[in-house]
Amino acid sequence: xxxxxxxxxxxxxxxxxxxxxxxxxxxxxxxxxxxxxxxxxxxxxxxxxxxxxxxxxxxxxxxxxxxxxxxxxxxxxxxxxxxxxxxxxxxxxxxxxxxxxxxxxxxxxxxxxxxxxxxxxxxxxxxxxxxxxxxxxxxxxxxxxxxxxxxxxxxxxxxxxxxxxxxxxxxxxxxxxxxxxxxxxxxxxxxxxxxxxxxxxxxxxxxxxxxxxxxxxxxxxxxxxxxxxxxxxxxxxxxxxxxxxxxxxxxxxxxxxxxxxxxxxxxxxxxxxxxxxxxxxxxxxxxxxxxxxxxxxxxxxxxxxxxxxxxxxxxxxxxxxxxxxxxxxxxxxxxxxxxxxxxxxxxxxxxxxxxxxxxxxxxxxxxxxxxxxxxxxxxxxxxxxxxxxxxxxxxxxxxxxxxxxxxxxxxxxxx
Length: 415
Fold this sequence. Notes:
By secondary structure, the chain is of the alpha/beta class. It is 41% helix and 11% strand. The protein contains 14 helices and 11 strands. The strands form 2 sheets. Strands 1, 2, 3, 4, 7, 8, 9, 10 and 11 form a 9-stranded mixed β-sheet that branches. It has a two-stranded antiparallel sheet with strand order 5-6. It is globular and about 80 Å long.
């Protein structure tokens, strides 16, 4: 990422770059938003103390002006540090501050609890960052909604193998313009014989588990309320969540998940058995596997799929090769992404070629994190792409769908 410094001034990041910074910190480096705000506030306090107060704030009055956004949160944290100096307040003053804080929290909670839109941008703009985090935490702690997805009553009369690939950051990059047509040659060939289209997903650039649960459960993310943001934290672990996997398992299928990354990520090791999976082959099954970039190659996942194929088998593979950040492999992020996209396309051809009888489905969990590419090309579409192909059935069909509709449609095609 390049930081601009106009007229020799202080370097800065624009809005798109700041979004990418926040995404990278949380998704790639696993540093939570609260910790980032704490660090920012502490450093702001130290900077203000040294620059404006000669290193000593004692005896000086300080006014902290905080807005409703993230910067406002940093200012409040800085004020809490009292510019990094020890605080000396009487017991009565502390009691007054505590009582006032409790009153504010209670009144704000009462007013805001029923006013949440669960659209983070809108809620932060209305309530501020810290109050929004508090209200979301309260909403998350409420009893789980009694929701039943479409697979609770699924009557399945099929026996052929089914392979589903949740392909990391997969989308038809040719929509950006200036991208070679043959980058998705296998996808095009199978789409001409099956069903394909754009796929509405609930995320952009990260948080794979939201799309993943929507596909497996058939439940629209909005129906989950606050649990849409992390369905694997509480909702999916409540037990008895009917999914595509559990429906096929009830039919006598072997249900297998393949993912060349630690199963503990997103709590999948605890969640997937609840979703109906018999087996989970994670990174420990890829000890000698080759990589393409920082992550295990799609070619290795392809080999694992072909090895596991059998009658009445459901394979759900989650790839990793095309995961960002792409700048770790060079400066041309789009070219790096396209190189990995070709490998994802190669997987389509190899797996479909091995399916003598069966159904293949591939979809993208979210678009890749390429904010500078999107800005430069005027692209603002968070939809990915999907493909359903069945050996023995021919005829192209182009239909745009939502992620939670795709698993149901897969069974319809399979029948």
